[in-house]
Design goal:
Chain B: This is WDR73 protein. The complex is a heterodimer of chains A (about 600) and B (about 350). With about 600 residues, chain A is α/β, with parallel strands linked by helices. Chain A has 17 helices and 31 strands. In chain A, strand 1 and strand 2 form a beta hairpin. Chain A is rod-shaped. Chain B is about 0% helix and about 40% strand. Chain B has 2 helices and 28 strands. Classes of the chains: A alpha/beta (about 600), B mainly beta (about 350).
Amino acid sequence: MPEIKVTPLGAGQDVGRSCILVSVAGKNVMLDCGMHMGYNDDRRFPDFSYITQNGRLTDFLDCVIISHFHLDHCGALPYFSEMVGYDGPIYMTHPTKAICPILLEDYRKITVDKKGETNFFTSQMIKDCMKKVVAVHLHQTVQVDEELEIKAYYAGHVLGAAMFQIKVGCESVVYTGDYNMTPDRHLGAAWIDKCRPDLLISESTYATTIRDSKRCRERDFLKKVHETVERGGKVLIPVFALGRAQELCILLETFWERMNLKAPIYFSTGLTEKANHYYKLFITWTNQKIRKTFVQRNMFEFKHIKAFDRAFADNPGPMVVFATPGMLHAGQSLQIFRKWAGNEKNMVIMPGYCVQGTVGHKILSGQRKLEMEGRQILEVKMQVEYMSFSAHADAKGIMQLIRQAEPRSVLLVHGEAKKMEFLKQKIEQEFHVNCYMPANGETTTILTNPCIPVDISLGLLKRETAIGPLPDAKKPKLMHGTLLMKDNSFRLVSPEQALKELGLAEHQLRFTCRVHIQDPRKEHETVLRVYNHLKGILKDYSVQHLPDGSITVESILIQATAHSEDQGTKVLLVSWTYQDEELGSYLTSLLKKGLPQST
Amino acid sequence: YRDLHTFELQAPTRLIEWARGSRVCVAGYGQSDGNEILQLIPPPTLLTKETQGLCPERDFKVECGGFSEHPVYSLKYVPDTSLLVTSGPPDSSLQVWQVSAEDSDVIKSVSPIATENGTGQSWAKIATISARAPWVLHGSRLDRVQITEVESRKNVYTAASGGSEELSGLAFLDCNTLLLCCATGRLCLADVRQPQSLVEAVSVPSAPCSEQWCMGTRLGAQGLEPSSQPVARLSSRGLLTLTDLRKTSEFLALAKARVPSPGSGAEFLCVSWAPALEGCLAISGFDGTVHVYDTQSWDNSGREAEPIFVHKGHAFGGAGGSGDPPLVTVHTWHLQKPRTLLSAASDGSLHVWDWVQPCGKC
């Protein structure tokens, strides 16, 4: 039976290091290659030994697909391609290709420079890895090879995030990566067409969450910023170059305008240029509203938000500053943090996850005395807040996506087994499909029922439609023909044509059976007796007595001869072709019963 | 407001019940089958005494869920057990469920408690207690009130028939005393030890047009003698009566709430006492608002009372103009935080709000 095999190497039943191996019709694809942010040792990488013990990964895998630039989906990619070894194609969307190397390099810097690790990929490895990347557009069908094709769909969540459809022949799998079904200020909602894949692989991290409304989060964020600024304090918001930063900028700009606030908002240098640059490049990736306003005026050139200069950090009075990098681990945001940390009127708002070891992570865990370079102790008196705006699909969103795509089966990753039973039942009940939740290293096999297209010869079609009732689209019609499988094509033809094409001669099969009858009379008298007997019984058949002394029943031939040793016994030779098998057997058993006495 | 959080449930609920460990339970009541019962863990912001503005965990988490074939109109946890009981149309039978959150996140249906189903009977109202044994008090009409032992399914008490009116609510005042409220407004007390007698409390003022009544009892408060707490009754026209159960011959107080008329029916009428604030009660079910009143200044005159706070959030939440404005289906008070309430509406919204006392009062 044809089947699809799925093995999560990471994110099976836990969150982090997404990496899923899929086998469809002989093609092997690796989906995502993430880093687990909670571990410091090799556990942070997916276990690639599941794939193949000895062979080369390049030979085994047909391609690798990366869904988006978050480190838990692409963080292990350079390790995988350069240190473990893979030279095949790596597919991702254009924005992901542009942003990935920046985040990977950032991450490398923290891990190696700050934490002093040695077994880690180098900057050169990141560059070499990115050389293997093939960028794809949304809804563009990409032929990986003759049989395997992939297509990216919009996933929302972050800039460039995509869901991928993997298709081999008529079997297909859709992998969602991280997605979001509700649009936000700068990204649209995920969308897929009714592609009816055999399997949909979906994340379920937030399936058990009932989210607080966006409005409430935003309102609370603005309240905090406003309160701080009103009392003369400074607000630091560390961000990555892209992503949530734009969302928050738009939010603040609108709020400042509405409330007529005067405190300055700054965007650190390099951030504006990079952000604008990328957004211009990838404008089709943001949502409809932004695209419209971008045409009128550049959405990322704000009225109230100005470029930052280092010296401004020392200015008195309230202000809000967006600065990179996002985890306060180096650079400008850390510098500003050190200047402002000692004043309790100030506030720092962390808008996302921080990796262990960074200042961001430390202060979010509650640490208030930090050791800086040169053994200096920094006392943190400023307020520390955390605000997560990251968007994942909740249970309602997952159901929506399943409704859109109409898969035949569903597989859930990213959640804890005990907490996914309810969702599994929910999906099974509503859509009547199977729902799987494998653990890491566990292979799930899904049986598929592919349709095999077969060409039928015109002659055969005409012949079959001529006999019997008219063809009805709703009723299956039984046809007889010969299936020819040559190269990779299947054809249904008539037996005669098949013989001709294959250069085979038709064989005729003839059966002959001997029946002994007790009859002392002469042969021709026996024949007459047999003839009358059969004529009487087989009224619907054509029974003939031929001049040469033989009897025919339809096309079956019966002849009588005397037994060589015994004159009292006559031997009837009954002979028929394969096509008349049924009648022939019947006649034989009839004659074996003997002739009636009377004739 | 001091605080306001809005959430959206996948399906609207008409019940919010508190469970052990600060869990909250909601359930779907739609017509199609596949209604879900969800036991939720509230976000830490709700559980702590201090209100925090920004907090990493701001969401409700579904701890476990179950699937009900019928709409769930009422749900009560059976104290000291891992069971809960639900009721709803089409008849007055009950369904018992098992919650075992540590093992699996599915609430399993155990078995139904069948009842005699006469014609035209609506769904049963329920109340639970675990004094002598886990009991569920249930009935859809005044003459069909009984107590069933949950585990053995044995009937341990049947109330004397005092009429065949439809019930709008029932409650255990203590392990022996029952309070029954009819949709007509009649309030009856019964003693489990004396199945033949039904004591009737003072009726409600008769009205020119038919109105429906529901009741609210203040049982959440610790260490208070249950019969010393007045019982509130709310009518679909907005009339509120307070009755002291020790002096059932007269009203303690009578007031009129300012509600839209004609009302939208009595389907979701709800009145409840604040467990941690003396004399404070909340009403909902008329429109998309929840009113909070201070009853300490009320008298017998039936004058219109001013609410000390009105929550309007549900009226604004909606999908913007499509269809009817949302109707608040149920509300409940937080058991510890004095001014925090939870309310749900017919559009699936779930709000958690903390109001600020207008100055001048306690």
